[in-house]
């Protein structure tokens, strides 16, 4: 058996982490085991499940440049003490450089840099992240991404064209397939029987653009008083978003549902899905929403690779709120067969049962030969 060490923030219930768990549940764990290098000291919702499946969660000293010597020693010792870890797979965007460079120093032959986004958030670490982005390809042996645009952003067009590899953000389609009985139950339990429900799943942060989402929803609610907005997720801008909802007079129309394990059921209760992100790679939530047969409205900052069904479209962030509202309201009351969503997403290559087997074969091949999936 070989072990793959995934470098992550922590194993919270978020997009990258959910994608990894989808694959982890699918691989043959008698041949491949996943371990996780958590770079935040906060426990994640997936930690217990990981341990039940035989994986381990190692908490690092953190991705702080002041701790880099300590971090490098920690990763080096971890890899030397666990020679069955044959692959290091980093999901920390530019900051994944630290884990991969440490793995390189420890002699790990297969080091995967995995791009999940098309921009870097301009926080206090932004200058450091730009430096790490330039250094990242030199620390990796493999260049993976959720999609074309993210791969080009992190690795450059020439390197991506020559050696990039897309690992689809695949899902368990049966969990998200449309179920009218679940829709009826959930809507009844929340008083939404007659509502037109817009849905959004995502962390409350700058990238997801909740402030603009509320502006768009206000325009929808003005024309359709029965409209409701269901927000699933947590994050640093949650309180700010709640305050804006109150200032717009929408507090009775916006449901802040927090973090939840039954997101798949909430897709059934929604009437459409709205993701006006400032930037994205290829969001898992967009795949899930389309598998549930929902009309989806993405910003044009989301890669066109997300358009997996005819029910999905992209709208420019330059378009005003009224234009967004008109497009969203056009789907209200339409008679559609939502059961087709899962099959269309399957045909697009996002079935975890198929993609999980592919990843297993790739890992085994790389561990044996040291070469990637080219």
**Poorly predicted spans:** none
CATH architecture of the largest domain: 3-Layer(aba) Sandwich
The overall pLDDT, averaged over residues, is 93
Structural class: alpha/beta
The CATH superfamily of the largest domain is known as Glycogen Phosphorylase B
Strand-residue proportion: 15-25%
Rg is: 21 Å
Q: What is the H/E string? A: EHEHEHEHEHEHHEHHEHEHEHEHEEHHH
Question: What fold name stands as the CATH topology of the largest domain?
Answer: Rossmann fold
DSSP helix fraction: 40-55%
**Termini separation:** 23 Å
User: Treating each run of at least 4 consecutive H or I residues as one helix, how many helices?
Assistant: 16
Largest sheet: 7 strands, parallel
The CATH class of the largest domain is Alpha Beta
Tally of strands: 13
């Amino acid at each position: 058996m070989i072990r793959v060490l995934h470098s992550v923030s922590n194993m919270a219930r978020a997009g990258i982490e959910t994608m990894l768990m989808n694959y982890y549940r699918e691989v043959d764990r008698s041949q491949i085991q996943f371990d996780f290098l958590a770079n935040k000291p906060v426990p994640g919702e997936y930690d217990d499940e990981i341990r039940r499946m035989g994986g381990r969660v190692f908490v690092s000293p953190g991705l702080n440049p002041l701790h880099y010597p300590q971090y490098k020693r920690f990763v080096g010792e971890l890899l030397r003490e666990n020679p069955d870890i044959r692959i290091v797979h980093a999901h920390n965007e530019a900051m994944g450089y630290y884990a991969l460079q440490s793995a390189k120093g420890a002699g790990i032959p297969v080091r995967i840099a995995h791009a999940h986004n098309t921009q870097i958030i301009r926080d206090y670490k932004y200058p450091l992240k730009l430096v790490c982005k330039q250094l990242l390809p030199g620390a990796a042996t493999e260049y993976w991404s959720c999609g074309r645009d993210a791969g080009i952003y992190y690795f450059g067009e020439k390197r991506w064209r020559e050696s990039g590899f897309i690992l689809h953000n695949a899902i368990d389609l049966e969990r998200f397939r449309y179920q009218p009985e679940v829709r009826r139950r959930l809507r009844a339990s929340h008083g939404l029987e007659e509502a037109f429900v817009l849905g959004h799943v995502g962390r409350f942060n700058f990238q997801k653009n909740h402030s603009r989402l509320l502006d768009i929803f206000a325009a929808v609610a003005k024309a359709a008083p029965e409209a409701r907005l269901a927000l699933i997720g947590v994050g640093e801008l949650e309180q700010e978003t709640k305050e804006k909802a109150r200032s717009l007079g929408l507090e009775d129309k916006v449901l802040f549902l927090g973090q939840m394990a039954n997101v798949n059921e909430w897709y059934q209760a929604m009437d459409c899905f709205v993701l006006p992100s400032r930037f994205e790679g290829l969001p898992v939530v967009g795949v899930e929403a389309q598998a549930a047969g929902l009309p989806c409205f993405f910003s044009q900052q989301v890669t066109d690779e997300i358009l997996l069904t005819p029910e999905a479209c992209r709208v420019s962030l330059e378009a005003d709120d009224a234009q967004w509202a008109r497009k969203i309201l056009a789907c209200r009351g339409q008679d559609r067969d939502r059961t087709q969503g899962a099959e269309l997403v399957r045909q697009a290559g996002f079935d975890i049962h198929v993609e999980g087997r592919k990843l297993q074969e790739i890992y085994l091949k790389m561990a044996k030969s040291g070469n990637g999936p080219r």
